[in-house]
Amino acid sequence: MFTGIITGVGRIVATHALGRSLQHGKRLEIAAPAGYLDDVALGDSIALNGACMTVTSIELEHALFRVDISAESLDKTAGLDATGPVNLEKALRAHDRLGGHIVSGHVDGVASVSHFSSLGESWELRLLCPVTLAKYLAYKGSVTVNGVSLTVNAVHDGASGCEISINLIPHTVQNTALHTLAIGTQVNLEIDTVARYVERMLSHTALTSPTQLHLRDF
User: Fold this and answer.
1) Architecture of the domain made up of 8-90
2) Domain spanning 109-204 has what CATH number?
């Protein structure tokens, strides 16, 4: 469990194939900020760009840790198959503040940056999202982008997908890896957990027709 509040920006410094076929994943080696791993143990969870991963080895003296990512996870995420900066968040502890929103670390889809530019003192980020996720994206709702808890400012549905607009304050841009985004960059999306459960409840209710209810009464 996470909150979408990034606690550090690391860098994937090396990737190693775990096998020769497409069914094999990769081992990632991540450089973390100095002191970031002091309270991390083997088996702990750390989200990389919003994807929950298990720490498999640690080198405290070099501020390095490693994770194994499956072929399935590589296929369903973006930015975890090559070297480069990544947003880091350690798993939520019971006594921590919930500064963002409830985040599971399970990526629901990949979006593409359609616009990213300064707007006054802030930045406007627009993302073209998969049509399948459109029903979960709402004005002033929460969404996780590369692990960052953000608020949706506008939603526009179109034939090619659903475009959402997000305002980024300077602090967010400066203290996450979002400043590296450019038009066409792919990002990981996680929808709001509440929206997921609401959709399930509504779809299940729809399966129970008045006729079925009437028959069960007799």
Assistant:
1) Beta Barrel (2.40)
2) 2.40.30.20
| DSSP structural state of residue 107 | -
Instruction: Pick left, alpha or beta for residue 123 (phi over 0 → left; psi -120 to 50 → alpha; otherwise beta).
Output: beta
- How many whole angstroms separate alpha carbon 59 and alpha carbon 159? 48
- The whole model's pTM is what? 0.90
pLDDT tens-digit series, residues 72-112: 999 999 999 999 999 999 999 888 888 889 999 999 999 99
Are 181 and 125 within 8 A, CB to CB?
Answer: yes
Rounded CA gap, 168 and 174, in Å?
10
Domain ranges of the chain: 8-90, 109-204
Distance CA 25, CA 47 (A): 17
> Could you give the dihedral angle defined by the CA atoms of residues 111, 188, 107 and 94, in that order, rounded to the nearest 10 degrees?
-140
Encoded tokens for 95: 């006594």
Cβ contact 67:27 at 8 Å: yes
pLDDT, tens only, 112-164:
999 999 999 999 999 999 999 999 999 999 999 999 999 999 999 988 789 99
Q: Given this chain, do its domains 8-90 and 109-204 carry the same CATH topology? A: yes
As a whole number of angstroms, the distance between CA 182 and CA 125 comes to 10
